[in-house]
Design a protein that fits this description.
The structure holds two protein chains of two kinds. Chain A has helices at 14-21, 54-71, 102-119, and strands at 3-8, 28-34, 39-40, 43-52, 74-82, 84-87, 93-99, 122-128, 131-134. By secondary structure, chain A is α+β, with helices and mostly antiparallel strands. Chain A has a single domain (3-129), classed as Aldehyde Oxidoreductase, domain 3 (Alpha-Beta Complex), CATH 3.90.1170.40. In chain A, the strands form two sheets. In chain A, strands 3, 4, 6, 8 and 9 form a five-stranded antiparallel sheet that branches. Chain A has a four-stranded mixed sheet with strand order 1-5-7-2, with helices on both faces. In chain A, helix 2 (54-71) runs antiparallel to helix 3. The radius of gyration of chain B is 12 Å and the shape is globular. Classes of the chains: A alpha+beta, B alpha+beta. The interface between A and B is medium-sized, with 29 and 19 residues.
């Protein structure tokens, strides 16, 4: 298999993601690492809580991966996403893409994270000192 | 027909639970949206929301049957 997709409550291991997409034919690996930021619009964020509709989220991520393989000469592609409570500095998402040349790797990796944010049924709640909100829920 | 609707994210807060049972007068996704919005007017305040049937996004004219897995998908925010 040239695609690995995973949703997990456990911390993600970035190095093993990179190792998994590495092939002898690869000339470059592009990696996107999402991290929990400590503030939104000037308000302190204490932590994020992620929830996924898992079977559908996996299906949507598989579609994104298939599109990336159609659009670019990708060798291996990995998407790992966490659920549950994440503290500032933790990693909710890792995307790794290997290609023979860097242009395709950069473009495919960006496509995967941008599309994931639009279509994959995963939600995050930002927890502040004085309450919590579901991100993007309201206009 | 009777259907169960799974809820995630803010929809869970609006429904007050992760699933609700509904009597659906009609068999289309748009019928489901109408009754959901009638019972839970807060849904109309969302940026948008989608219905998923059997793990796929469903358009308004999509036909629903009692055995389908139906979910309400509020605006996603993964990554």
């Amino acid at each position: 298999m040239n695609t690995q997709i995973k949703i997990s409550e456990k911390p993600l291991c970035i190095q093993s993601c990179i190792d998994w997409v590495m092939t002898p034919q690869s000339g470059g690996i592009d990696v996107f690492i999402g991290t929990v930021r400590d503030a939104t619009k000037g308000k302190n964020v204490l932590r994020l809580e992620f929830e996924a509709y898992e079977p559908m989220a996996v299906k949507e991520m598989e579609k994104i991966a298939a599109q990336a393989f159609e659009k670019w000469p990708v060798q291996k592609l990995l998407i790992h996403h966490r659920t549950g409570t994440l503290e500032v500095g933790e990693v909710p998402v890792v995307i790794a893409v290997s290609c023979a040349h860097r242009d395709a790797a950069f473009e495919a990796c960006r496509f995967v994270i941008d599309t994931l944010k639009q279509t994959v049924p995963i939600w995050k709640k930002e927890v502040f000192e004085d309450g919590a909100t579901w991100v993007a829920a309201h206009p | 027909m009777k259907v169960n609707v799974l809820a995630f994210g803010i929809a869970k807060d609006i429904f007050g639970g992760s699933t609700i049972a509904l009597d659906l007068p009609g068999n289309k996704t748009s019928d489901l949206k109408a009754i959901l919005e009638h019972q839970f007017p807060r849904l109309k305040l969302l940026r948008s929301y989608m219905i998923a049937v059997n793990n796929e996004y469903a358009l308004d004219g999509h036909l629903i049957s009692e055995t389908d897995e139906i979910a309400i998908i509020p605006p996603v925010s993964g990554g």
